[in-house]
Amino acid sequence: MQQNQRASITGIGSYVPGKVLTNYDLEKMVDTSDDWIIQRTGIRERRIVENGQITSDLATQASLRAMEDAGVSPKDLDMIITSTITPDHIFPSTSCYIQQKIGASRASAFDILAACAGFIYAMSIGQSFVNSGAMETVLVVGAECLSKITDYTDRSTCVLFGDGAGAVIIQKSSTKHEILSTSLAADGSQADILIMPGGGAKNPASLASVQQRNHYIQFKGKEVFKLAINNITNLIIETVTKNGLGLEDIDLIIPHQSNLRIIEATMEKLGLPMEKAFVNIDKYGNTSSASIPIAIDEARKEGRLSKGDIVMLVAFGGGLTWGSSVIRW
Ligand code: ACO
């Protein structure tokens, strides 16, 4: 292995459950309409797990695909890092279940929680372990069953979310997709505007917490909307500058898929055409940690990524947290 090789994405895989929940299905559940959802969010449908299917099942399928793509076997994995806000259990980690399901007995395994920015956070940990030489092969997963924490009686949140998983293998490589830099940020002063209030140490599960519907995602939509656009735009500008690049050098932005209007407003603020943004929110809604790796996989399959392209991953979510990563494809 050459000295100058850097942490790179050497394999990608994704998996979404087969069951489709359309806007028309939601019209029958809450007072909403296909028109409203498309106009305000860009979402047409989302995928939902079947009964009995759980986060580690989706993650396992995505991981096996990423490993096959990279040409690595389960025994090659040194570490598994999963980003999720819908783990199989609060503990043990979902990564441990994935380790067992794929047979990666040598790998250490743990989860991280940074909500919708979690995949970028997890990737940066994997990148650091690989660049330092401490690990050779790291599996990074973003997987969610958001349908399990979505309140299907609340029209302002239930139209947004879906289930899915994506995964990447990170290794040193001189031929695959080099991670040039990763930037992470957080603002805990806004922690309560995007939250699942029930189930933790502050508000453990009780009859009252269930009756108050505290075990579901709650947020202040308008505030999140504005903060997302401003923070993502600033971070993209900072990230290109840090890499000695200009905005015009970006070939494709792969943003977290939270709302088409957030993506459109960000591109407009940057002065970049929408053709430079990858969008698949119409099919999957917001899948939190899973949205970026699913989008990378689909962008590649659609021929949107060519060797040498500068690709910007960017995400924003609860915490608040946000992050970006620049890849030379
Ligand atoms: N169908 C029809 N009407 C609706 C619906 C619905 N599904 N939801 C809300 N409305 C109504 C509201 O009641 C309101 O009616 P009113 O004017 O009579 O009071 C009207 O539509 C406008 O509501 P707003 O909340 O102002 O709608 P807005 O244009 O802001 O869109 C949305 C709401 C889509 C939630 C937007 O604010 C948004 O996308 N915010 C970001 C949310 C986000 O991405 N959060 C990330 C969470 S993911 C994570 O980190 C786990």
TrEMBL record:
Catalysed reactions, as listed in the record: malonyl-[ACP] + acetyl-CoA + H(+) = 3-oxobutanoyl-[ACP] + CO2 + CoA
EC number: 2.3.1.180
Compartments it resides in: Cytoplasm
Gene3D superfamilies to which the protein is assigned, alphabetical: 3.40.47.10
InterPro entries: ACP_syn_III_C, ACP_syn_III_N, FabH, Thiolase-like
Superkingdom classification of source: Bacteria
KW Lipid metabolism (keyword) present: yes
Beta-ketoacyl-[acyl-carrier-protein] synthase III N-terminal domain span: 110-188
Keyword Transmembrane helix set for record: no
HAMAP family: FabH
Family statement: Belongs to the thiolase-like superfamily. FabH family.
Record's protein name: Beta-ketoacyl-[acyl-carrier-protein] synthase III
Gene behind this protein: fabH
